Amino acid sequence: MKKLALFVFSILFVASSVFAQDKADKKTQKGHTDQNKFRQMKDVLATPNNQHTASGAPGHQYTQQKVDYVMDIRLDESTNHIYGDEKITYQNNSKDYLEYLWVQLDQNVRADDSKTPDAKSGSASAFFTPSNFKKSYMKEKKGFGFNIETVESNGVQLSHFINRTMMRINLPTPLAPGETFNFRIKWNYLINNSVEDGGRSGFEAFPDGNNNYTIAQFFPRLAVYDNVEGWQNMQFWGRSEWALEFGDYDVRLTVPSDHIVDATGELQNEKEVLTRLQRKRFKQARKSFKDPVMIVTQEEAEEAEKGRSTKTKTWHFNAKNVRDFAFASSRKYIWDAMAVNINGRAVMAVSLYPKEGNPLWEEHSTRVVANTLEEYSKMTFDYPYSKAISVHAKRQGMEYPMICFNYGRPNADGTYSDRVKHGMIGVITHEVGHNFFPMIVNSDERQWTWMDEGLNSFVEILAELDYDPNFDTGNLPKDIVRYMGGDQKRISPIMSQGDYVQQFGPNAYTKPAAGLYMLRQTIMGPELFDHAFRTYSKRWMFKHPTPADFFRTMEDASGMDLDWFWRGWFYTTDASDIGIKSVKPLYLTDKPTQRIKDVIKSNPRAKAYFEGLGDLVYITDKKEDANPKAMDTYVKNAKNVPSFIYKVEFDKPGGLVMPIIVELTYADGTKEKKTFPAQIWMKNDNKATRIFASTQEIKSIKLDPDLETADVNTSNNSWPKKEATKFTKFKEKVKG
Amino acid sequence: MKTKHIFLLLFLLPLMAFTAHKYYLSLTQIVYNNETKTVEVIINVFVDDIETALNKIHSKELLLNTKKEPTNTDVYFEKYLQDHVQFNIDDMPVTYKYLGKEYEGDIVYFYLEIKNIERVQTIEIKNTLLVDFFPKQQNLIKSKVNSMHKSVLLTKENDKGLLKYK
């Protein structure tokens, strides 16, 4: 019986397409492979193995190298040089014999023979700073880049070769699996002025003669050797950031004795470098969970910046299980700190800033650090380090383990605009957030910018909205519409290596962040999403994840097939555009429609079938046949009969599949929102049809009313079409 | 890493990247309203970009969309638009009226009106918004005339476009 019913109804609904086929060209059509947008990602994801498993977790054969550093660093303020004596212990945990080690020499990106400036084509700028004019057109040699003094092991010089930002150290004998190799590099370099020469690290010179040193990428660092890339030794061109191994650091920083210093790791010799008063204040800060405590006040900093000590002091830091080390040093610093409760453990939120950062910095910096640690810990794992420091810098926004450099400077008179304030809150949240991605969930930045910037920008949205519910995060789905609707020639898929992507910011920051926000809010729901996101974070904390590990874990932990989303949003440049193609009112009637009459007439089996069904009501598009009371005799309360029936056809000019979010507005002004999952496009990628039945008239229909899906064209989102245009609305407004 | 300082970008793009919006795009939407015989134009640009440009040109600190924004900024906007956006309709230069502006987040919308246009077969647009300040600036033009959609992307090197509706 069921079969017959199916047969009959299929006649009813496919009749027109049968005719169409009859007219079709008789020529044999070409076949095609599976291009369905819901096909699984077998063709693009790496084959899983026992290192990176099919579930997205590290496998039982996963390995990771360990690199420990013991360093003596001297900052010479009079010549702006840094001198380093670096002892490295390289532990080969892989199953491979290594014939050489690769070391990153990032300072060489601005060396006089760097190829970075030559590798870009550019037109003339409209204006220059004199220093940049000299650099661009006068071939001024600045003398930046590493001077490598010694590379040796146990007193024996090691053969090595410097290929610009990468140095290969040839091992005397291949390093066996499980073995360690100890060696030493002595080096020095001229520090760049990061305001004039640029750079993620360097110093800012103040008119009072002081410098603010925000120092990073300052020592030769081991490249990553892993299960998927082998050596990650792609050159540092200046944009795509780093891949780094975890290890332990023991660092002595010798600086002018009147400098204040903070760095990655825990200070080992408080008594030697801090005053009794500073130590007492620190003790208070460790118990102050509400407000920051001043360790060095503005008054004290202003006094200190008048001095010029020629003596030195050595600050000793230890850091366990970090992937990098950075520090800040200046006699201009105001210093404050407070405690943050991370699941019962006190972590210190710390800020260093010159008086030029006030009053903005004393008000917000440390509080934003604290808020960031709390919010990110909720979304990932408990922040495992002992502290997080925000250092004021004029133009940098740059992240390192436990320490980051952030911009946001008020005007000289201390006033500042909301934009400066929001920029500063945003950048501190972002850079402190990088502690989680990539400092702990240690993805390969050189290869995949989005894995740290995108994931970080996503959690940043939630942290910023927690700090200030009205914060304009700039990373929501609506914020990526202009980019995704732009010229396709200028857009790269997210899954592109960072050095060549076009429009880097929206590509690697906003689009992945907006996509994850959409997954959380619209596609998966916070409960499913958060569990999966946390699972990914925990699985890969202190490890090296790949994109496939992220995509697979999100599905593995949620029970949702998201391949369609990853494929569309991350692997293509397709945009989302869903529209209402037509809305057709239908009517309830007791009169058999013409088509049913025809079927009964032409097919004796159908006649028998219909007769066997007993009483029937019909749906027609002919208004004159309408009988809203046709169902009344069959129901207890005739008021509940939905006699307003609409056939709505949706089309999809955009390449992406997305849920269809429909907002119905009824005659009495009430609204109802219905969401159809993206799978509605599974069988037909171009159109979808739904019937809406209601007890009252539907006045209007709107798609994606809350701008959740990054629909690049909203002009087809409304029915009826006539909505006052933006232009008319504005004109009305100016007229008053 | 995240860097919002725009000047720096000009010199150091490979060394540091990022601005608040991190890309440089303006959008000009042109609609011919057959009923009112008016060409309606909405141009949107990023607030901080136009602020950078106007501050530089006038050596001012305009602080747009803040409480400190001067009351006369429309004068600067109108002048800047007149200098950098021009239209020819059916080969004739036309003038437009600047109706005003509207802020929305980090974007500012400008409303322009070209009146008494009996028919439109071609629109030629010259748009050099912000290209002097941001080498990567793109100015996207979208239009709808007689139910035809035409668009063109303009840049510093290629700052004129011809849109045909016949």
What does this entry look like structurally?
The complex is a heterodimer of chains A (736) and B (166). Helix content of chain A is 27%, strand content 26%. Chain A is an alpha+beta fold and 736 residues long. In chain A, the strands form 7 sheets. In chain A, strands 5-4-8-2-1-14-18-16 form an 8-stranded mixed sheet. Chain A has a 6-stranded mixed sheet with strand order 17-20-21-22-24-23, sandwiched between helices. In chain A, helix 7 (418-433) crosses helix 9 (449-467) and helix 15 packs across helix 16 (604-613). The radius of gyration of chain A is 32 Å and the shape is elongated. The model of chain A is unreliable at 1-22 (pLDDT under 50). Chain B is globular, with a radius of gyration of 17 Å. Chain B has helices at residues 6-12, 47-58, 73-84; strands at 25-33, 38-46, 85-89, 92-94, 97-104, 107-114, 122-127, 138-145, 148-154, 160-164. Chain B has 166 residues and is an alpha+beta fold. Residues 3-21 of chain B have low confidence and may be disordered. In chain B, strands 5-6-2-1-8-9 form a 6-stranded mixed sheet. Chain B has a 4-stranded antiparallel sheet with strand order 4-3-7-10. Chains A and B meet through helix 7, helix 11 and helix 17 of A and helix 1, strand 1, strand 5 and strand 6 of B.
